[in-house]
């Protein structure tokens, strides 16, 4: 079990409405200590914060201003449209702005099946979803990763297991910086302990899980993997629109180490982002920070706000990986 100092560990939280309900004969179910996650971030923290869907420098500026105004600590901001939708100057601007505040910046790697020419993703079954279709899409994701890393980005969002494994191998080979981390997309998120462990072995450093997983599901995952988990406290509508604010203390207890993601339901999609969506992107960026303030206030009221990682913490600690195969030998030209 990872040590939890020097972070102040949370005391047993007050459960919502517990005293009032007990007074009229409805006591809360007993807490089962064995359900708690035995894991933590390497700094000892149990949870960190993330503001998703921060699509460019202007949206980032809005998030930073609002987080200062509302005193919302931010460990990570993430973007969903992709590296390829940003200019070098925009990426550099975001890298520098995040560095000034010691916030991790996570950008999505490029081509995805939902934007490709294949029709399968538009069927009721969803086809291949966000996966990168063919060699060229894989190569585009690699190009995005190399470009972003060269501009100082050290966290990349990935939606395809082949892309993930490829980028991990490039990291192992020194083609990407050793401190680059890979975050698995919410639209690829594993739904059982075995798949969660597989993605960890493929190179994931934090993994989005669907926001409709039960508390027992989180406990099951934590029995097989300590890889950090990302979870929308409030999910966008295309991920179900779930709002789980009153469960946050228990989500932390079961799912640590956990990134609390402050999403937004009842809001139009903004991927891929462009200036035509500016007003929506800025308004939703500010509101995501406000949602974060609501969650932090709730944790404080219930005495469950201890255990947050120090601001600036970003690395996941030692994780388990599949052994990378040796590169295949170059083909020998015929006639030699």
Give a structural overview.
With 336 residues, the chain is α/β, with parallel strands linked by helices. The termini are far apart. The N terminus is likely disordered. The protein is built from nine helices and eight strands. Helix 2 runs parallel beside helix 9. Helix 2 links the parallel strand 1 and strand 2. 44% of the residues are buried. The chain is globular. Strands 1-2-3-4-5-6-7-8 form an eight-stranded parallel β-barrel, surrounded by six helices. Helices cover 34% and strands 10% of the residues.
Topology of this protein?
Elements: H1 18-23, E1 47-51, H2 57-70, E2 76-78, H3 88-101, E3 104-108, H4 134-150, E4 155-158, H5 161-172, E5 181-184, H6 193-202, E6 206-208, H7 215-222, E7 229-234, H8 248-255, E8 258-262, H9 278-301
Parallel strand pairs: 1-2, 1-8, 2-3, 3-4, 4-5, 5-6, 6-7, 7-8
Helix pairs in contact: 2-9, 4-5, 6-7, 7-8
The number of distinct helices, counting runs of at least 4 residues, comes to: 9
Q: How many individual β-strands?
A: 8
- Please state roughly what percent of the residues sit in beta strands, choosing from under 5%, 5-15%, 15-25%, 25-35%, 35-45% or over 45%: 5-15%
Helix content bin: 25-40%
Return residue spans where pLDDT drops below 50 for at least 5 consecutive residues: 1-5
Largest sheet: 8 strands, parallel, barrel
The oligomerization state is single chain
Strand order, main sheet: write it out: 1-2-3-4-5-6-7-8
Distance between the termini: 57 Å
Order of helices and strands: HEHEHEHEHEHEHEHEH
Tell me, rounded to a whole number, the average pLDDT: 91
What radius of gyration results from the CA coordinates?
A: 20 Å
Which shape, going by the Cα principal axes?
globular
Q: Which structural category fits the helices and strands?
A: alpha/beta
